[in-house]
Amino acid sequence: MTHVSSMELFLLKKHYCVQCGNRLNRKKIIRIIDENSEEAHKHRIGFVGDIGGSDSGDVKLTTYYLECKECNRTFTVKEQREIEKEKKLLKKEEKRKQKELAKAGHKN
Ligand SMILES: [Zn+2]
Fold first, then answer.
1. How much is the pTM?
2. Is 80 part of any domain?
3. CA of 21 relative to ligand 1 center, distance in Å
4. How crowded is residue 48: how many other Cβ atoms within 10 Å of its Cβ?
5. Could you tell me the distance, in angstroms and rounded to a whole number, from the CA of residue 72 to the centre of ligand 1?
6. Distance from residue 23's CA to the centre of ligand 1 (Å)
7. How far is ligand 1, taken at its centre, from the CA of residue 38, in Å?
8. Tens of pLDDT along the chain (108 residues)?
């Protein structure tokens, strides 16, 4: 069984621009950073990106971001996650309100 992180799962799904609704493109950045750098530690702990070791003590850091070609905006995975979480909450709230309105309507 291969381990799939929640970030990978997130990236496999379709995502849409909060501004124009256009489908977002997944972009990949690969950087080589020092194994002992604060950034390497941060990412290893946070499981952001995929780090593969090398002999020189440098590590390959792969990070993803999402890009909207329509409005030239980019979103980090974290940003897009927050946006979608908020959207979900709004939808839930909207549904709750509609239910309440329907209930109130029946009373009269
Ligand atoms: Zn857009």
1. 0.67
2. yes
3. 6
4. 18
5. 7
6. 8
7. 33
8. 567 778 888 999 999 999 999 999 999 988 888 878 888 777 654 344 455 554 567 888 888 999 999 999 999 999 999 999 999 999 999 999 999 999 998 766
